[in-house]
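Next comes a concrete protein, fold included:
___
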Amino acid sequence: MATATDQQFAATLNWVIVRDGPGTWAKNADWDEYFISVVNETGDEIQIIDLTIVVSLGTRLASNSVRKELVKGSKETIKRYKDSNLKVKAGFGGGSLIATGAAMAVGGTATVAAASTVGMGTATAAAGGAIIVGAGAVLLAPVFVLAGMGRAYDNHKVTQEIERRHTILPATVISQQPVILDIFFPLAPSPSQLEITYLVAGAKKTLVLNTGKALKGLHLVQEG
C-alpha cells in the first residue's frame, strides 16, 4: 500500500484492519491496526523506537496498546473533526483501500476493508478471517466465542488481545532479517503519512511512508 527506504531502513505498509472489516477479530473496534513489514539494510542492529500517524487535519497520533486509551483517542479525533465540520465513521470511506484489498485477494480470501458506522461503544471479541500482509505471509485472526459472557469479560479479552498483538517498542531489527510490526492507533481519518523513528549506530532517524493515496478518505464521510 505504501513503501519507503532511506538506504539504511526499508518499510512497507501491507494492510490496515479497520472496524468490522475482513481480518478483524473484535466487533465495534474503535481503533486501527497496521501491519508494517520492515527490513534493516545495514550491518548494524536497528532499534525502532516510535511510530506516528499524521491524519488529514495535520494532527499526529501516537501508537498505543491500551484499549481504553485507544477508544479515548478515537473519541477525541471524532470531536476534533466535528469541530472542523467533518464527519468521521470508523471504517467508512477509503476507496483506494478497498480497491487495493480487492487486488490482494488470495485463494478466495479478500483483504477488503468494509464500510461501517461508528459508535464509541464496547468492542467484543469475534471470529476473524485471514489477512494477507505480504508475499507469502498470512496472518490468521484468533477466534473468540464470547456470546453471553458480558461486556466486562469481552472488554477484558479484547484488552488482552491488543496487548498480545501489539509490537513491543523499542523493537530490535537484525540486519537483513524482515520483520512484521503489528501496531495499533486510534482512528486515523485519511492519514497522509506514517512515520517510523529508529536508532542506528547511535543516530536517530525517521522514515516517512506516504499513505495519502492508499488511505485517502479512510473513516471520512463525504457529504452531499
Summary: The chain has one domain: 2-210. Residues 58 and 192 are 8 Å apart (CA to CA).
